[in-house]
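Quick note —
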Amino acid sequence: MDLATTLKLILPELVLCIVGLLVLVLDLIIPDENKKAWLPYAGLLGLGLALIAVVSLAGQNVSFLSGMLAVDSFAVFFKFLAILAVGLVLLVSIDYMKDRTPYRGEFFGLLILAGLAMSLAAGATDLIMVYLAMEFLSFSSYILVGFLRDNERSNEAALKYFLYGATASAVMLYGMSLLYGITGTTHLAGIANYLANGLAAPTQLWLVIPALLMLLVGFGFKIALVPFHQWSPDAYEGAPTPVTAFLSVGPKAIGFALLIRVFMTALPEFTTTWTAVLAAISMVTMTLANLVALKQTNIKRMLAYSSIAQAGYILIGFVSLGLNSESSFNGINGVLLYLFAYLFTNLGVFVVAIAFEQATGSNNISDYAGLAKRAPGLAAVMLICLLSLAGIPATGGFMGKFFVFGAAIQTQFYVLAVVAIINSVIAVFYYLNVVRYMYFTPPVGGADQPIPVPGLFQFVLALTAAVTLVIGLFPQPFIEIATQSVRLLAAS
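Predicted structure written out below.
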């Protein structure tokens, strides 16, 4: 492959790298704080160019850099999702970080570099690249969580996140070393070929199971699956709220991308094993998270457990995969559709939380009392997004659940489907509890002043609410995109 073709294939990553480093360097050399105000907008321009570069790769199906990276429809989908998530979070971070830290340039630069890590991870087809991309993303996330250095909760959250992450990373790396020791290769397709052709000795094959479980520790940590979720509530509560929003959508989506590609490409011979393990984890994850969420009084902690539960729902699609089926419910397309809807739904909820925190300094659910009168627009967006998270019809969340639950029923995972439906009913209670405060509870202590919403927030709120409803009301184009994005994966 010639240099020009390689540069074109890696163009989104090159743009993100250059823009991220440029923002960091310009922040250092420009002394005037007022002149730095345009840095995040330069970052947004770079993200826009990276999105264009990603779209230009649509339809490609090629491996490059000695098989370390691939550009296919699956990778393009997740690259697009990652860059879009970073752009929306950056938009709401401009006002939020203005009065909280003088180091805003570093924050924006790190956020863009985290987008670079996610983009690399989306196309990783070698265990070494998988590990490097995940570690790049993890270290960026650790710093972002603890970015408010004078905030004790932010520091505590970053330390817990780092300790859990370091442990999970070490376990995952040991699992990768076992796979390399068995097969003699780190390339995902090479591992699959070695195991499928019976080249491994019977005494070696038993090592694949512990290696598989160790890999799951690393991916489960990134997705926040039970029992690898302990970091999530503290990190979500202590991190700057835009970072919490980022963690809930960006790394989680990429964690699913890596889980799907590694397990389906490298370990298809052990599908029965990892399907059974992931089905059990899915049921435990959504049940534990929903039950604990019922008792939460802090909106960020409630959304942390909600995010864990949503990961359990999304996992159903992967467990129920049937890529060779003629049905519309092949499992993986449900995962992609769910993740796309979840991006806008969850960001919408968090942007409302950020705006409310900006105005009141509070993240207590009880303080949302009377929000419908103080800020009708905020309350309306929160209502739409909470209904979507609950899986109410005419929302994107409903379509996501419909496709992953449908896949479970089609593959006769009836127990999994029943547990998921029961958990969806449980989740309605804590989602509608917030709605109850907003619409049916008077403000506490006379706190009835209108809540100002910055212009950038208004744009992101309108976009997230609109897309959430569009996916629910006109889902067919999104279903086709999700199905197309897994077609080449099915053929690999």
